[in-house]
Amino acid sequence: MTTAHAVTTDLPSEDDTANLGRWLASRLVAGDCLLLEGPIGAGKSHLARALIRERLGRMEDVPSPTFTLVQTYMADVEIWHADLYRLSHPDEVAELGLEQAFAQAICLIEWPERLGHMTPANAIWITLKGKSDGRSVTMHAPSHPGLLAAFAQDWAV
């Protein structure tokens, strides 16, 4: 499904989810924020892990930041991977330093609804949903029409 600001497609396997992460890796620049939403087990960390490894250009241990809240990686641009699941109030986000990272790094944010008023206006939303035959992914990126068009061309069924 494609609309003016969103594209939805299927990812039948975990490999497809990882391939999407690798596809995104070369298309993001400093200041881009990828908001990864979906229930537990939807593939958010799997997609982020593939993206980070591709951007680093090597196999790297990329743990889920569920307990550390933020993991950073230095590639050609710094990458921040945050898991906000354990936060109870958007004010706690400010303590993590994400606001500065939003301007200077590539940010991958799991559980982005916890950002509240700190949600970047130009964010790229990736919504993953489990299905009986894999998962579906929707990209919503009104501030990134070129990325959305490329996603539609390369991924939409």
UniProtKB/TrEMBL annotation:
It is found in: Cytoplasm. It comes from the Bacteria. The keyword Transmembrane helix does not apply. The keyword Acyltransferase does not apply. Its main location: cytoplasm. Keywords: ATP-binding, Cytoplasm, Magnesium, Metal-binding, Nucleotide-binding, tRNA processing. PANTHER family: TRNA THREONYLCARBAMOYLADENOSINE BIOSYNTHESIS PROTEIN TSAE. Belongs to the TsaE family. NCBIfam families: T6A_YjeE. This is tRNA threonylcarbamoyladenosine biosynthesis protein TsaE. It comes from Cypionkella sinensis.
